[in-house]
Amino acid sequence: MADLNRLQEIHNEMHGKKHRRKELAQTFKDELAQHARYQELLEEMETLKIEKSSIENLVRETAPKDAAELEDLKVEIKADEELLSDLAMTLIMQNEIVELVDEQLNRYVAHMLVKFKKDGMVDTDKQKKSTEA
């Protein structure tokens, strides 16, 4: 139970830091909104971004077959990555060592990451009982 309490403490500290980071970021954003040259640069960047996109589309139109293949490969690679991840997780759950080697003899090992995602509101009565125990 001590580990769970420590986990909660760390989460609370991190939440406070994120709140402070958000406040500071908003302060900088407000200051930048008042800066004339910065606003000019943003407008120039938007114009250049549109021009860049236009050129990219023009090039794609000259080779539609290659552009379609590129998009297909992106989708296939993403699906393969998900499959690779699922298979690796299955092996890990079976206490197998998960290790891959590519053509240049580079070794790859599984790297797991745990993230916390907001899942709704906590029943306060239930929360009180669990902290009292």
Describe it for me?
The protein is 74% helix and 5% strand. With 133 residues, it is mostly helical. β1 and β2 (107-109) form a beta hairpin. The chain starts with a helix and ends with a helix. The model has no long low-confidence stretch (mean pLDDT 92).
Task: Give short descriptive properties of this protein.
133 residues, mainly alpha, 4 helices
Short characterization:
The chain is mainly alpha-helical and 133 residues long. 74% of the residues lie in helices and 5% in strands.
Topology:
Blueprint: H1 2-33, H2 36-62, H3 64-93, E1 99-101, E2 107-109, H4 124-132
Antiparallel strand pairs: 1-2
* Percent helix range: over 70%
Total helix count? 4
* Overall shape: flat
Low-confidence stretches: none
Biggest sheet: strand arrangement: 1-2
Q: Could you spell the SSE succession in H and E letters?
A: HHHEEH
Strand content: under 5%
Sheet with the most strands, sense and barrel status: 2 strands, antiparallel
Total strand segments: 2
Span between termini:
9 Å
Average pLDDT rating = 92
Q: Rg from C-alpha positions?
A: 25 Å
Class by helix and strand content?
Answer: mainly alpha
